[in-house]
């Protein structure tokens, strides 16, 4: 059953936790500030510093999880269909949060929402293409 759950819910859930811990909750407009605060910096070989913030980490995790989700979408088991449906529900929830809650009106959450949309589209497209290969359409000459 856990195989049917969309893994992209993890970075979305992490963003929700980060937004809920703000002073105003979902109505807070300080989420963009929290996402852009540097967590740590990495010394580069050219002598500069690369500041890494929470938004960057969430997007990196989202991209890794999106890759895994794309690999999962290539299976044609029954759990893949449930995964596609749950991914669609996750996308709708992300879209509602992005449009209605000020704490989610950030570039980081927008890009997470786009990742969820790409997961939904890729899942349905892969399922349709694989279903077309499994069905033998008769030729007119038979």
Describe the structure in brief.
The chain is mainly alpha-helical and 142 residues long.
Structural class: mainly alpha
| Biggest sheet descriptor | 2 strands, antiparallel
Q: What's the average pLDDT?
A: 86
* N- and C-termini, Cα separation: 43 Å
Count of the separate structural domains: 1
- Radius of gyration, in angstroms, nearest whole number: 19 Å
Number of helical segments? 5
Assess the beta-strand content as a share of residues.
5-15%
Order of helices and strands: HHEEHHH
Number of strands: 2
Percentage of residues assigned to helices: 55-70%
Q: Which spans of ≥5 residues are poorly predicted at pLDDT below 50?
A: none
- What best-fitting shape do the alpha-carbon axes yield? globular
Placed side by side, the strands forming the largest sheet appear as 1-2
Explain how this protein is built:
The structure is a single chain. By secondary structure, this protein is mainly α. The protein has one domain. It has a two-stranded antiparallel ribbon with strand order 1-2. α1 packs antiparallel against α3 and α3 packs parallel to α5. The radius of gyration is 19 Å and the shape is globular. The chain starts with 8 loop residues before the first helix and ends in an 8-residue tail after the last helix. The model has no long low-confidence stretch (mean pLDDT 86).
């Amino acid at each position: 059953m856990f195989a049917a759950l969309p893994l992209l819910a993890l970075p979305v859930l992490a963003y929700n936790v980060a937004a809920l811990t703000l002073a105003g909750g979902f109505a807070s407009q300080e989420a963009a500030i929290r996402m852009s605060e540097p967590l740590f910096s990495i010394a580069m070989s050219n002598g500069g510093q690369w500041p890494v913030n929470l938004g960057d980490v969430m997007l990196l995790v989202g991209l890794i999880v999106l890759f895994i989700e794309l690999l999962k979408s290539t299976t044609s088991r029954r759990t893949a269909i449930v995964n596609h449906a749950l991914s669609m529900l996750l996308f709708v929830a992300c879209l509602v949060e992005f449009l209605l809650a000020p704490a989610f009106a950030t570039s980081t959450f927008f890009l997470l929402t786009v990742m969820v949309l790409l997961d939904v589209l890729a899942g349905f497209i892969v399922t349709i293409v694989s279903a077309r290969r499994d069905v033998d359409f008769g030729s007119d000459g038979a």
